[in-house]
Each structure stands twice: as structure tokens, then as C-alpha cells.
Amino acid sequence: MRLLALHHPADLNSELARVGVDQCAWTIFSQKAEVIPLKITGISVAAGNILKQTALVCGADCALHRDAISGRVKKTDAILFATPRQYEQICLRLKQQPDCAARLIPEIRTLLAAARQPQRRVKLGRKTLTLNRTLIMGILNITPDSFYDGGRYLNPHAALERAHQLVEDGADILDIGAESTRPGAAPVTPEEQLKRILPVLKPLVKKTRVPISIDTTSSRVAETVLAEGAVLINDISGLKFDPALARVCARYNAGLVLMHIRGTPRTMQRNPVYKDLMAEITGELQKSIHQALEAGVAFENLLVDPGIGFGKKPEHNLEILRRLAELRTLNRPIVIGPSRKSFIGHILNLPPEERLEGTITSCIVGALNGASIVRVHDVLPVRRALQVLAAIQSGGS
């Protein structure tokens, strides 16, 4: 007798084949091998108790408030623990229950689909970016004061050389920023951002097929760079700083990364506090998505970023990486940017120049937990690490 680790479908199928299980039944067993926790908030105790009993009948379980059974509370949160096959049975049984429980079925099915089939495509103008592996967004900071490489690429010639090197190293996207967003950084005017960006962007769009992203919160900057050939806007504010940016992206059918932040770069690290970190990040990103959709941005053009290091303490950043898969609730590709950030320095007691290993580890954990794109300074070593991870996950194919 021994334990099995069957996290990959190929490994489960291999073991089923060794046992001699009929191949027609493999899908059934795959649906029984994975427990997916699902949290439902603020339901009536009646709905909670129905959900609990229904889950138990199906061989699953449901955690409720301790006083839900006695009726001492009027509302309760619930955490369902079930396999995909058990969720199917739960939904079938809930159809026969009162509306307070039956109305949960559509959202359960939507979240289950998001958990099992993450978004694999995103539209960037006329381009469709396929996300069948974790892609790499190479960072090009055209700034004098970025925390790691400030000043290195302020000269357009140096910036262009760096851009071509990032592409050669394997960057799938180039992300150009002309405004430092390090903790304590002051805003940079749209005029100054464009003065830095355009001498690099204009020749670059003619010489590379790699999609170009611009890291800005300014609608004016976005309007100009999208007209010049950029196809993605990376907004660290999630539309909080300049709501008009969404309308600009809609006009150009551009991609839009919506990032979570608390405060501004100048204020964000002044003791950020969360009661429920992942719930608050997810809820605030959902509001940003709604805002973008209201402005005309297509759903398939949106990506989300939990904002590692933006209004987060070190422990918050670690929790984000551990629980990143929860952002699949939003049903959009997930971007993370852990590159050489201070939470790595906090763990290792090292300056930005010596945080490469921590960056690689964070990217691997992010990829394992659902990141579609990792935004990094060090493209080549991260690409190699992700290649090894992909080989392990695919069995070498």
C-alpha cells in the first residue's frame, strides 16, 4: 500500500491504466480526484443548512457558522468542499430545493468552470495572445528613479538595445514604463512620460512583432501610445487614477491590465491593513472590471493583477502567491509582478541586485497557482525556469 500524488491528469490516467480500468471511466475518476473549495458569502441559515445536507448526501461537505444549525445567526458564510462530480450532483439536487438554495446553482457552475478551465486567450487590438503556457512580460523602465534599474535605460539608444535583448532572451511581451511606481515615488506628468516613451516606442513597433505594453495610468499617454502601435495598457491603479483611460482602451480595442492598489505609490506602504486580503483584492478588481466594461472595453481584452508590493506588507505578498488561484473567480488571465521586490529582500535580507533567486521562485509558485503572465526584469533565467516547470508538468512532451 502506498500514497499517490496525482495532481496531473496524465499521472492519474497512467495509474488507472496500470490497474486496468476501462478508458471510458477515466473521465469519471478524474472528476473524483480533485477537491475544489468554494466560498459563498452572506446566505441565509436556511440556505446554508440545505447546502450542508445536500453536500453530505453527495459525499461532499460544507462548513457553516457554528450557530447556523441553531438559528442564532440569520446569515452565514459557507465553504463547500467537493469534487467536480460531486458539484454536478449538488447542483442537480439543489434544483429541487427552495429558491434560497436553488438560486446558488448558476454561480456555483460559473465558478467551477473558471477553476477548471482558466482563460487561455486575451485580445490585444487585432492580435490574440494565446496563453497555453505562462508568458513573460519583460520590464523596460525608462526612468531615472525605478527601485532596481532606474537610470540605466533613460537614454533612447540604451532603451532600444535593452528592448531587443529582452526579446532575444524570450520576452513574450514588452512592458515600457516612464513613471516609477516604487513606494514613495512622485507622479510624472503625461508630457514627461511621452517625452521618454516615444523615442523608444516609434522605432520599436517597426522592428519587433512582440506585443508592446505601456505601463501608465494616464489616458492622455494611453491615447498617444496606442495610436503609435502599442496594444496593451498596464494600469497599476485599476482605473482609480484616471477613469477616462478605459474609454481610450475601448476605442483602440486595446488590452488592459487592471491592477489592485491601495492608495498611491507615494502613500501605499503606510501601514496597509486588510481584514480579508484575497476577498478584498478580488472584490476591488471586480469593481475595476465592471468599470472597464461600462466604458466599452471588451471582457476578452481584460487581464487582472493582484498588485504584489502595491499597498501590501510582506506577509500580504506571500499570501497572494499562495492563494493566487482564487483570482480565477474573475475569469480573466492573471498577471503577477514579483520581480526583485522588497518582500523578497525582507525574507533574504538582500538588496534588489541580489534577489534573482527569490524572483524565480516567486514566478514558479505563481505559474503553479494560475499566473498566465509574469512581469520580470530578468527574462532569460525566468524563461529557463518556466521551461523546466512546463516539462515537469507535461511529462517532458
From TrEMBL:
Keywords: Folate biosynthesis, Magnesium, Metal-binding, Transferase. Pfam families: Pterin_bind. It comes from the Bacteria. One of its GO terms (molecular function) is metal ion binding. Its cofactor is Mg(2+). It catalyses: (7,8-dihydropterin-6-yl)methyl diphosphate + 4-aminobenzoate = 7,8-dihydropteroate + diphosphate. GO terms for cellular component: cytosol. Its EC number is 2.5.1.15. The keyword Metal-binding applies. GO terms for biological process: folic acid biosynthetic process; tetrahydrofolate biosynthetic process. Residues 134-387 form the Pterin-binding domain. Pathway: Cofactor biosynthesis; tetrahydrofolate biosynthesis; 7,8-dihydrofolate from 2-amino-4-hydroxy-6-hydroxymethyl-7,8-dihydropteridine diphosphate and 4-aminobenzoate: step 1/2. The keyword Mitochondrion does not apply. Gene3D superfamilies: Dihydropteroate synthase-like (3.20.20.20). NCBIfam families: DHPS. Belongs to the DHPS family. This is Dihydropteroate synthase. It comes from candidate division WOR-3 bacterium. The gene is folP.
